[in-house]
């Protein structure tokens, strides 16, 4: 008899895995590898690194799959990034950057038995991720699994992260939140990017941000101070619950004991990575 998963067990596991996937975007190792390909600023490096699994796609595909980036920012770099480097070269450089980044953040743990165990568990969970209507996940699922355990673990974390992210976009659409409204309301929870980082990396102007705040206030989702109202809290709660439902398969496949162990292992790696400065100190919060 299969033991049911505790409430939010999959989400908790995701919350340990997702930062371990995304830390490389903020790392000097990734910047160095992308810079060597001529992608020497954050935006073109990010667009290339995350999009390369889909091939030499255009700005429309990136906008559709990333959702909360301004189209004009994307179009300023895509498809020009593919003139600097092919998707194949970007993928190889990205993996080199991830390798160096994880070795710096985690030290000897990358070679330890716990990393190999975490890789096996995360890859087992990812077996249950389906490709249909999950474009970023599907593209990464077609890539080979790296041999080294720490890179296999990172690859599996990427599959699980993009699978949940693809589902989350569907939830945002169902909630009638446009890309910037989604970003503003997430920031209002205190769990998303600060406005500073959101504006710098997503391409929106302060005027556009303020206009989205007004729209959310008109819907009764933000109060006069820009904080979430009760309705806003419920909307964000509902978004996560809807995303949980669309993200249930990999964790149900892994099983309660496996999810608990993967959460424990990934949590240990994450604490080490955070302690080593994996992210900018002002990245998350209300700012």
Characterize the structure shown.
This is SalK. InterPro entries: HTH_67 (IPR054058). It comes from Streptomyces mesophilus. Pfam families: HTH_67. This protein has 287 residues and is mainly alpha-helical. 67% of the residues lie in helices and 0% in strands. Helix 1 (9-22) runs parallel beside helix 16. The model has no long low-confidence stretch (mean pLDDT 97).
Extended strand count: 0
Largest sheet: none
H-E string: HHHHHHHHHHHHHHHH
- Low-pLDDT stretches are none
What portion of residues belong to β-strands? under 5%
In terms of structural class, how would the helical and strand content be classed?
mainly alpha
Q: What is the general shape?
A: globular
The domain count comes to 1
Name the average pLDDT. Answer: 97
Helix content: 55-70%
Distance between the termini: 47 Å
Radius of gyration: 19 Å
Enumerate how many helices there are, as a single number.
16
Q: How would you describe this structure in keywords?
A:
SalK; 16 helices; HTH_67; 287 residues; mainly alpha; single chain
Give the secondary structure arrangement, pairings included.
Blueprint: H1 9-22, H2 28-36, H3 42-51, H4 59-66, H5 71-75, H6 81-84, H7 87-106, H8 113-126, H9 135-141, H10 149-174, H11 179-188, H12 195-202, H13 206-218, H14 230-246, H15 248-254, H16 256-275
Provide a quick synopsis of the model.
InterPro entries: HTH_67 (IPR054058). The protein is mainly α and 287 residues long.
